[in-house]
Amino acid sequence: MRKFIRHPSDMPLVYELVDVVADKKEYLNDVSEGGLSFQSGICIETGSVIMIEIPIRAPVFRSEGVVAWCEKNEDYYDVGVKFSDIKAGYGLRMVEQVCHIEHYKKEILEKEGRELTGGEAAAEWIKKYAKDFPG
Predict the structure, then answer these.
(1) Residue of 4, 1, 3, 27 whose CA lies nearest to 14
(2) Where do the structural domains in the chain lie, given as residue ranges?
């Protein structure tokens, strides 16, 4: 069983390196209880303190973490971030669900031509998929 849940790579993520002048917009890969991974155009040193922001919906998820790993992958780097804050773990669970709902909303528009509000997409997604969502 996967430790991380794969998410569509079109979910935005903004990061800021605490000890380095860098503020980049990238895209989320995976989310787990203790952290996340994303694609970066630059290599970020393991152990770097990083501030992550995921501006999908209000309230915006924002938390400080530590870069756990960074691996070259073709033209970009996959970066893993670990959070130690319990609140961050709870926030990440909410981000997971919002990512799935936002992807569902886009999928329905593409496949069925229906434009759903956030609330409508959430209600449909919960009815169809929440029972299978890892808890």
Answers:
(1) 27
(2) 5-85, 87-132
Residue 27 CB contacts under 8 Å (≥ 6 apart), including other chains: 9, 10, 11, 12, 13, 38, 39
pLDDT in tens, 60-82: 778 888 999 999 988 889 999 98
Statement: the pTM of the whole predicted model exceeds 0.90: no
The CA distance from 120 to 85, in Å, is: 32
Residue 85 CA from chain centroid, whole number: 16
CA atoms of 112 and 106, how far apart (whole Å): 10
CATH superfamily, with its number, for domain 5-85: predicted glycosyltransferase like domains (2.40.10.220)
